[in-house]
């Protein structure tokens, strides 16, 4: 990895990896390889260890690590850590993947999809309800990106995160599920005030998203349907909608 990153002509990119293994003599080993200030850095580290734009949010969760915890509790902490890091990071999200490494080798634990993670760990971000908007877009039209939403709402408020989370199906209708997280409640309120009520009754999932906003920065323009984050809305998405596949903006 170090040699590969060093071979790149363009080191303006943000790229890196954490490499974990088990040494027969010293036990677990952790290494970070990444690009910083156009230079490739390699470090040998110890837990807690994180890398990437969401690492600050990850490390806050990892402070509760206990080396005597059970494998199940450690896996739960790992999932929570990934969820917390991606929830507040501007462009990441999607499936959560956790691996268990010991002296016998490694195995991947069952993948947790985005809607399951949002529902299971709702309490981690419930205090952000009034800073978070959920949006849906008809999957039959041109998809929109995180940047499209950032460009539209940025004049009104400072966005912490904008994710296209998943492609879902409810009944016979498919839609993209997006999420916006604002830095302050009054900013989220100002953003919501740019929406207007709609009177559409079909597709039926729109009953859960009573307001709309038109993205004029798209050609042609795209109508996005909006509601505040809530446990009930997440449970509807998790329990009543089929997750077709996860989406991750880059």
TrEMBL record:
SUPFAM superfamilies per UniProt: N-terminal nucleophile aminohydrolases (Ntn hydrolases) (SSF56235)
Cellular component terms (Gene Ontology): proteasome complex
Gene3D superfamilies, alphabetized: Glutamine Phosphoribosylpyrophosphate, subunit 1, domain 1
EC number annotated for this UniProt entry: 3.4.25.1
GO molecular function, one term: hydrolase activity
Highest rank taxon of the organism: Eukaryota
InterPro entries in the cross-refs: Ntn_hydrolases_N
Keywords on record: Hydrolase, Proteasome
Protein name (record): Putative proteasome endopeptidase complex
